[in-house]
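tool_call: predict_structure(chain=1)
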Amino acid sequence: MNKQTGLNASDFWQPEFEYETRPDGTILMRQRGALGDFEATLADYFDTWADATPDSTWIARRHEGGDWRRISYGTARRQIRAIGASLLAMGLGPDRPLLILSENSLEHALLGMACAYVGIPYAPVSPAYALVSKDHGKLRDIAAALRPGALYADDGDAFAPAFSAIAEEGRQVIALRNPGAGAISFDDLLAGDPSGAGSARAALTDQTVVKYLFTSGSTGAPKAVINTNRMICASQAMIRDCYRFLTHQPPVVLDWAPWNHTAAGNKVFYMVTTNGGTYYIDDGRPVPGKFDQTLRNLRDVCCSWYFNVPVGYDMLVAELENDPALAENFFRDLGMMFYAGAGMAQLTWDRLRAAGRKATGREVLLATGLGATETSPFALACTHVQEKSGNIGVPALGLTLKLVPNGGKLEARLKGPTITPGYYGDPAKTAEAFDDEGFYCLGDALRPADPDDYAKGFFFDGRIAENFKLTTGTWVAVGAVRAGLVDALGGLVRDAVIVGEDRSELGALLLLSDKGAAMGNDALRAALDEKLTQVARSATGSAARVRRAVVLQDAPSFDRGEVTEKGSLNQRAMRAHNAALIDRLYADDPGEDVIRV
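tool_result:
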């Protein structure tokens, strides 16, 4: 028994590596050995578990009345066969995919698996494209690229404007509630003849496209990342090799994260499905007013694997510390906690580890990793207990990590069976994404935890595309500067845009937090001036020292690509769209609203 994790050492990988170093400083790193066998299709996995454990719960969601509505593997297979047959009868197929506009739901899960079972590609897209966007511009781009044969949303009334925005002759609408004139009810799909799915199921191969997942589109129109059966099944084989306890402890997961993102939609959802586990849909969110629902669910569900974003853990850890019963239930069966999407504050990291030790008497693994929509997404993972947050680990078995010197950093590239063949209908963007050896260019820089031993893992070192040079020729690591600045400003701002390309010193455009916005102008100015001065004094050089700043008055625009549906800022788009403000920031007489230190 591993005293650090409460699991056997064999429950996590113990990888060994081989390396190749080239004259230009490029390093290739891969695990020794070969990836084990895996099924060719997701349908194979679903049939395996529907045959072996037909009565086990596959997926569940709370009714409004409070009880869990559960769907077993056996029931789900009958329903996905019926749905698949109905979709085929509607004319959907490889060239006429299904576009899902609404959020996670039992019906969404059934539709997605039905499509995978009969070879109809589907695309779950961010509900924000339909419900938040004012002009539906990105949704129009998506529909123009995929030319879907049908659209689905849970509520026909709420999504009616989006349906109208991408209406086209022959394009059918499916809705669970309020289908509207001419639309198809979800219940009608369940009436399909399951035998109609048989020949389509038999024709599936590992190259059959399962889905298209869209990048955020923060630098233009969203790109449709092709996801094949081979990509997804290979990725799940890598996950099982890494988290080996999954093979004898079917995962139990409670998850709120959206399925239009690869982290939840691919890694977590298929981790449950291919290992015969149970996926509980969490209708809570890590925001005030909705987190109580998550806490209620965590009192019901004992997870074996738990995922959240750092802000979710910030909220959760306080509850775990103050509610011993909740902590006992949360940690009882937990093999590990995983976070992604942003960096975790060290204080939160320390408190989570302490809460786990207090509840269990052992160390509960807290870890992160690195991947992308284009990598299925599992790529790098850390399974050793760490004292500091942020170690993203080492490359998975079957992947080759290529580290290329770029601007004083190591740019990460990947090759292996989990990498997308490209972007649907966009050969130019596909070509740009790969280097001349066929490695996918992540666009991320990595920093080794130990320069003398890469097997100890890496830390994220910023986005290559966000970085720029000062007039001194010094590269600015925008991600690190931004994170350090936001942290140092003590909750006065929620984000910052780092500027200074081809200038002699750095500046920042500040987005106030609720705390900062609630302060009077004079008090806010004084507080920002004091903290910015402290930051500048402690900086180690011009590439880390922010010397001037101004508060942004206008919120970032979703439609202009300044902010993604995840809420993260596109630094380059923000700099481009605020060029006049940046020019004023660097003027000799910039105005009273500009802070200079």
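agent: The chain has 20 helices and 29 strands. Proceeding to next step.
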